[in-house]
Amino acid sequence: MKGYSGGTIGYGIDAPPTPHSSPAVITAYENQTLNLEAYDNQVHINGKEFVFLDDEANDNESKWGYTTDDNFSKNKNYSRVLKSSDNGLTLKAFLRQKCYPTFQNSFIDNGQAGEIFVNNTLRTSPYNSDLVYEGNTITASSSTQIINGINFSFSRWEDNLTTNYRTFTIADNETHTIYYTGNPSNYNRDVTFGTNLWDPIKVEWVDNVNTNVTYYQIWRKINGGTPVLVGSVNRGVQQFIDPDYYLANWKQFDRVEYDPRPYYSIEGTSATPLFVEIYGIQLKESEENQITEKKNIPTEFTITNYPNPFNPTTTINYQLPITSNVVIKVFDITGKEVAVLVNEKKEAGYYNINFDGGNLSSGIYIYSVQANENRISKKMLLVK
Predict the structure, then answer these.
(1) What are phi and psi for residue 289, nearest 5 degrees?
(2) CA 35, CA 354: separation in Å to the nearest integer?
(3) CA 104 – CA 382 distance, rounded (Å)
(4) pLDDT-flagged residues of the chain (< 50)
(5) What residues have CB less than 8 Å from 125, skipping those under 6 apart?
(6) What are the C-alpha distances in Å from 284 to residues 124, 245, 288, 291?
(7) First-to-final CA distance of the chain
(8) Considering Cα of 331, then 332, then 338, then 339, what sign does the dihedral take?
(9) Residues 79, 85, 87, 91: what is their CA dihedral angle, to the nearest 10 degrees?
(10) 8 A C-beta contact, residue 34 and residue 13
């Protein structure tokens, strides 16, 4: 029994076999018939159970012999007419152990979870196999899988062999373990972009569910060229503003591709590159200034003043959506003109002018701002 003696063996001389303790020393004579019998379900002192494989398994059946190289019979019952040459020899029944091997995964931060193929059937890990008789084989291989936001792929077995699909000759209640390498998944990253034309391109995404994905490297490609690392942000930020490119209309100017690539700190690995495209333009400083000025142009004609009431000065603020001929006048309550503050052409933009009422008496005054055909008048109160 796998190198162990003991247990029970049956023998009879010119008679049917009966059980005896093993090893049994037999006295018999030449030409007598030795009838032997092997018994199943023998439990060794260490709890391992053995059987004589005559019909339980197709491979590596049990046998009778002097050594494991002999094959006198594969039946439980074996009869032999003794010869003088048999004197002093030992006949053995080579029993096989009943084995229950375990196959399992090992993930660096997910234990033995996931799935594993055993005999080409997908099983939940750890999988405690059905009965396998010693010397028989069983196959196992990995299953590529995503667990808690990480793509796990086969790395090695517990004996450091890197062949994924393995055939194991089972010898005991043994455990075989597959070790995996983890890379963060891009699944549900959901990359989007800001929508304000001529703003610096804003890249946004959803964080990986695994908290061990601690930061993101921002990679950029221009018109399908070589990827360039342009920045990195920590987990939780979920956006990156590219100072080099401004958002343009779809399929205008350059095709700009971004990959906010998650980094898995436990294993020091990154996700497989996955770029998402948008269109933008890289501007020179003068062009950037033009865009900035364009963005600062007001959309409507308005006027205000502050403070109001005032003593003795106030500031009149006005904004022009287009280039205009501007006239700003101040009148007293009777309609008498008391000051002309502006009378000139102005580009679109934001302006202000101070009004000093130090030489005027307290009371209500009207300031009027005319821009081309548009005019707005408002009251202000001088209090001394």
Answers:
(1) -65, -40
(2) 127
(3) 88
(4) 286
(5) 103, 104, 105, 112, 113, 114, 115, 116
(6) 59, 10, 6, 11
(7) 117
(8) negative
(9) -40
(10) yes
Two tokens, residue 209: 């569910």
Q: Is 9 exposed, middle or buried (0-12, 13-18, 19+ CB in 10 A)?
A: buried
Contact 41, 51 (CB under 8 A): yes
User: Which amino acid makes up residue 69?
Assistant: D
Cα distance between residue 319 and residue 339, in whole Å: 20
What does the alpha-carbon distance between residue 63 and residue 73 come to, in Å, rounded to a whole number? 5
pLDDT 10s digits, 159-216: 999 999 999 999 899 999 999 999 999 999 999 999 998 899 999 999 999 999 999 9
Q: Is the backbone of residue 3 left (phi > 0), alpha (psi -120 to 50) or beta?
A: left
Q: Which of helix, strand or coil describes residue 10? A: strand
Residues 315 and 305: beta-carbon distance below 8 Å: yes
Distance from the Cα of residue 123 to its chain's centroid: 22
Residue count of the chain: 384
Token pair listed for 79: 């009869």
Closest C-alpha to 255, from 274, 280, 220, 230: 280
Please name every residue paired with 257 in a beta bridge, in sequence order, or none if there are none: 221, 277
Span 336-370, pLDDT tens digits: 999 999 999 998 889 999 999 999 999 999 999 99
Phi, psi of 52 (to 5 degrees): -95, 110
Query: What pLDDT, on the 0 to 100 scale, is given for residue 275?
Result: 97
Cβ atoms 251, 277 nearer than 8 A: no
How far is Cα 257 from Cα 228, in angstroms, rounded to an integer?
A: 10
pTM above threshold 0.70? no
Q: 């006027």: which residue's tokens?
A: 303
pLDDT attached to residue 57: 57
Q: Residue 184 burial by CB count (10 A; 0-12/13-18/19+): exposed, middle or buried?
A: buried
